[in-house]
């Protein structure tokens, strides 16, 4: 039988606790060292293995710290939050992969890649260590309640669950919000009256969580949540490190060296801790410089110095606390207890800021702020899950062509009841005939007042579905949405008279080792829609798209990451080709279009082809070509018909295709026609240049191999153009449901 434990998965440290007969405690008890491990992971280049926890904490190169800041993030989001300040050095860098995916790359001294790792994989190594140590200490297998910041959205929560899956850890869902966990541990020590509000300020190494909860005697209800998942003690450490470098008139580029970075940040963190108890401290360490050798740092720092540097961050904390206690459902005057959690709440200036906002409240430190979350998770592991009522700090709005319409307001209790879901009114309608696949895009948002709405920086979420009964274009689809116990958006669609179809939530910021599967699933929906919307048509592009779609679905069924990445790239390229073909392929030409086309090709010969290859032509041929171009210009000005100008264009092209260089000019011209991919055009241009060079060296003719290669590429270009031309009339459709046209309505 498994033992239930609680795990606090922190930015700086992670801990394991369980509920004993006399209360929660870190594991193990009885004089042994409790499981309180640094959230650090080290890649051992010699063994190609990963080491986590205390054994990795003292390493410099190839170690990864504070990975919680990257969980569930896109590359652009991480860059916008200046994540490179925490993860950029000569030993590691943040890499943008396909679809804005974020990966951490570890580098050697020469800048070559040693290893690449997804953020969930890093935390998986930490979780695996915690699991192994807990099972060894307890002598049983374990299953765990895992905590996350209350301000985490579904993308961050999904990444945390992915880390647990990779670690082989059984998670007792739902994930528990960290402030709620701390409140559960606190309530066992200090009795709270029924209905009494409790403010929890959880400020750790990388995130700030502020929550107001109300006790019901046995559990808690969340009343308000606010926070910042990009604000923590790491920011204070970097600010102090920059101050020390500035005093010594040293460049911040010194921190690009991993040894310097580790040495200085470790020292300033130690001084920061000292300043919580003493009025002064000294940053004392030795850095190295490529030009000057050893740099001795011996800088005194007073508490006043540190508080001055910390002031901008403390003001952000105060603003977030103020927003939370100013929530419409919170009676700030009734808050008499403020529970401080996380290492950054040990800073005296932090407490002064909070006490100023709530002068009548007591700042409680009854629990070790570093252990409180793990202890509460252990309590929750043995409780009834419904004893804690939770809310979602984000709202959701439906994106439409004309803006967005609020659907689910923020602060909704979760899980929202499925029998009372939120509906889009009026119903959305299908985008094309016989549509069976569909997608609705929603935007997360936060609201800090009744009049001001702020779009959440973590992006949008798509809700997708399949097997919608086929109906004519414009058929209303009733869409219903709700939030599940992990605060993840769920939905279903219904056509009148038919059974409802469940929908799957795909966060556009969702990352991790299986990101390609998520993205491929989304692109398959686009491919299915294009094939459905062009039912009855047969073109080479559609046939190829159908073939790749089948391979993509096989990759999804097999959950093959490598196959998914390969299919994803091919599928996206084909989708782009189909859309380009549909949008640009010509329909029946009018006489004026024929005239314009003939004039355009005459200009191409005059401005591109002849200047590039004219030296290969006989003088008589070149003169005749120039004369034909002039004649076409005159015909256009004098109103000649499209057929007459096209005949003259052919008279221009025919002599250019004769002779030793004819195949070069023809291949170059055919590579320039609309519908030929740019990559193929570039290949033909290079082969043309090569053929010209050989022609100059071998007047009798071009080498056979070069000629055949060029003709093969020209044939490929012709086939591409024919496929493009055959696609004229394709319907460009997407699976996205559109707003009904009857009226805008209100939700």
What does this protein look like?
The protein has 747 residues and is α+β, with helices and mostly antiparallel strands. The chain has three domains: 3-231 and 314-381, Nucleotidyltransferase, domain 5 (2-Layer Sandwich), CATH 3.30.420.40; 394-584, no CATH class; 591-726, no CATH class. It contains 20 helices and 31 strands. The strands form six sheets. Strands 22, 23, 25, 26, 27, 28, 29, 30 and 31 form a nine-stranded antiparallel sheet that branches. Helix 6 crosses helix 11 and helix 12 (515-533) runs parallel beside helix 14 (561-584). The two termini are 49 Å apart. The model is unreliable at 508-513 and 741-747 (pLDDT under 50).
Number of helices, counting only DSSP H or I runs of 4 residues or more: 20
Work out the strand percent: 15-25%
The major beta sheet can be summarized as: 9 strands, antiparallel
Described by the principal axes of the CA atoms, the overall outline is: globular
């Amino acid at each position: 039988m498994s033992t239930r434990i609680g795990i606090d998965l922190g930015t700086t440290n992670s801990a394991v606790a369980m509920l004993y007969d006399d209360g929660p405690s870190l594991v193990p008890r009885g004089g042994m060292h409790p499981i309180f491990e640094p959230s650090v992971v080290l890649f051992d280049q010699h063994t190609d293995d990963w080491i986590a926890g205390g054994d990795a904490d003292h390493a410099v190169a190839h170690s990864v710290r504070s990975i919680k800041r990257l969980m569930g993030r896109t590359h652009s989001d991480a860059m916008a939050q200046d994540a490179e300040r925490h993860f950029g050095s000569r030993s590691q860098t943040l890499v943008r992969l396909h679809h804005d995916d974020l990966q951490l790359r570890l580098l050697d001294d020469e800048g070559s890649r040693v290893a690449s790792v997804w953020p969930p994989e890093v935390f998986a190594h930490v979780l695996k260590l915690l699991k192994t140590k807990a099972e060894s200490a307890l002598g049983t297998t374990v299953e765990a309640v895992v905590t996350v910041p209350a301000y985490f959205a579904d993308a961050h929560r999904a990444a945390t669950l992915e880390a647990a899956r990779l670690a082989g850890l059984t998670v007792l869902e739902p994930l528990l919000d960290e402030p709620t966990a701390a409140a559960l541990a606190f309530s066992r020590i200090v009795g709270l009256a029924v209905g009494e509000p409790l403010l929890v300020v959880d400020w750790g190494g990388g995130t700030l969580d502020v929550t107001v909860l109300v006790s019901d005697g046995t559990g808690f209800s969340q009343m308000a949540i606010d926070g910042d998942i990009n604000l923590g003690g790491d920011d204070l450490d970097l600010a102090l490190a920059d101050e020390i470098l500035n005093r010594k008139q040293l460049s911040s580029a010194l921190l690009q060296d991993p040894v310097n970075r580790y040495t200085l940040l470790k020292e300033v963190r130690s001084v920061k801790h000292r300043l919580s108890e003493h009025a002064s401290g000294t940053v004392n360490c030795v850095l190295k410089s490529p030009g000057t050798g050893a740099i001795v740092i011996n800088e005194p720092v007073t508490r006043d110095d540190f508080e001055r540097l910390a002031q901008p961050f403390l003001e952000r904390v105060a603003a977030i606390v103020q927003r939370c206690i100013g929530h419409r459902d919170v009676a700030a005057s009734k808050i008499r207890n403020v529970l401080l959690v996380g290492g950054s709440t040990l800073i005296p200036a932090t407490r002064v800021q909070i006490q100023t906002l709530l002068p009548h409240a007591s700042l409680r430190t009854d629990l070790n702020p570093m252990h409180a979350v793990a202890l509460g998770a252990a309590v929750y592991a043995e409780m009834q899950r419904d004893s804690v009522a939770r809310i979602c700090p984000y709202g959701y709005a439906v994106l439409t062509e004309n803006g967005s319409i609020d659907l689910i307001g923020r602060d909704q209790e979760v899980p929202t009841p499925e029998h009372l879901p939120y509906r889009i009114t009026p119903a959305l309608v299908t985008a094309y005939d016989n549509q069976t696949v569909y997608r609705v895009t929603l935007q997360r948002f936060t609201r800090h007042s009744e009049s001001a709405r702020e779009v959440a920086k973590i992006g949008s979420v798509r809700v997708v579905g399949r097997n919608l009964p086929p109906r004519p274009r414009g058929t209303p689809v009733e869409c219903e949405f709700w939030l599940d116990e992990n605060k993840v958006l769920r939905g279903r669609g219904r056509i009148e008279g038919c059974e409802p179809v469940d929908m799957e939530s795909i966060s556009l910021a969702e990352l991790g080792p299986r990101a390609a599967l998520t993205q491929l699933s989304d692109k398959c929906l686009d491919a299915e829609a294009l094939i459905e919307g062009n039912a009855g048509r047969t073109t080479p592009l559609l046939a190829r798209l159908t073939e790749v779609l089948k391979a993509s679905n096989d990759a999804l069924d097999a959950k093959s990451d490598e196959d998914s990445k390969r299919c994803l790239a091919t599928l996206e390229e084909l989708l782009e080709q189909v859309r380009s073909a549909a949008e640009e392929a010509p329909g029946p030409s009018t006489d004026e279009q024929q005239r314009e086309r003939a004039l355009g090709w005459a200009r191409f010969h005059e401005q591109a082809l002849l200047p590039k290859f004219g030296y290969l032509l006989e003088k008589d041929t070149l003169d005749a070509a120039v004369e034909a171009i002039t004649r076409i210009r005159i015909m256009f000005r004098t109103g000649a018909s499209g057929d007459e100008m096209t005949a003259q264009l052919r008279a221009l092209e025919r002599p250019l295709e004769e002779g030793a260089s004819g195949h070069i000019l023809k291949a170059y011209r055919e590579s320039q026609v609309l519908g030929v991919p740019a990559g193929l055009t570039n290949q033909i241009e290079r082969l043309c240049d090569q053929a010209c060079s050989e022609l100059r060296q071998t007047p009798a003719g071009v080498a056979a191999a070069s000629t055949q290669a060029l003709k093969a590429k020209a044939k490929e270009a012709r086939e591409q153009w024919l496929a493009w031309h055959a696609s004229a009339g394709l319907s460009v459709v997407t699976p996205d449901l559109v707003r009904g046209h009857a009226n805008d309505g209100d939700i």
